[in-house]
Amino acid sequence: MIIGSHVSFGKEQIYNATKEAISYGANTFMIYTGAPQNTVRSEINIEYLNKAKELMKENNIDINNVIAHAPYIINLANKSKIESWYFSINFLKKEIKRCEVLGIKYIVLHPGSHVSHTKEEGIQNIIDALNLVISDNDKCMILLETMAGKGSEVGSNILELKEIIEGLKIKNIGICLDTCHLNDSGIDIANFDNYLEEFDKIIGIDKIKCVHVNDSKNAISSHKDRHENIGYGTIGFTNLINVINNPKLKDIPKILETPYVSSKDKDKDMPPYKLEIEMIRNNKFNPNLKEDLIKLYK
Ligand code: FE
Ligand code: FE
Ligand code: ZN
Q1: What pLDDT is stored for residue 263 in this prediction?
Q2: Domain with 198 in it: what CATH number?
Q3: 160 domain-assigned
């Protein structure tokens, strides 16, 4: 099982991220190469990178399973402010270069929101943008994430993702499934095998390179995108475990993006990942997550 969570790219960059992942008992992790909400990026520090690589080796973390995520403000679907669209394209190119320096093979990208355009125009804008971003010799592959369909988000069904891929000159691209987003977009995770079969027919299962494992706070088809802790939401523990253990996705990294659990002291919200990874490895739901986290982080 290749499992980890979103971790922070702190002061010591990927070295921080690696230490955090190890503290959760993870064997992979996902990072934003800076703050997810903005495009302020510090230069990659090679000393921290080398320390991280050593630590990964000692702890059986394969860099090939480590995932990056592009910042939310990149929006390739909206061309109404042309300078913002070009900014997104150039920033994404730079993010790919940063990933290449770090040795990271995959970067997850939200396809984008079409805003004032029609959905068809939004899809075409994404295709045009990706055709400017992707080149033959990229060592880091973009993974389009399946979206909940909140607002004007593109990518909340298989056909839209297929249309984007079909428009690309260079098909060096993959997909990242997100269980919360799938649920909120209308997919019943209890019938995940049916979804995978359909996905395989339309896009091809080999395109799936990462799975975000999240429960959802909302009902199927809600188009909300609010993540919940594993087993505490509307998808439920058993359905999520079945996704994680699905033999067709065996060697694909699974990444938790579940919410921190709040404690009385507001700025001391607790990361749930160590105990969620334990639940998943033991295949046993923990109904006392919050209490156990308080004990763990007291
Ligand atoms: Fe995402
Ligand atoms: Fe996600
Ligand atoms: Zn989400």
Answers
A1: 82
A2: 3.20.20.150
A3: yes
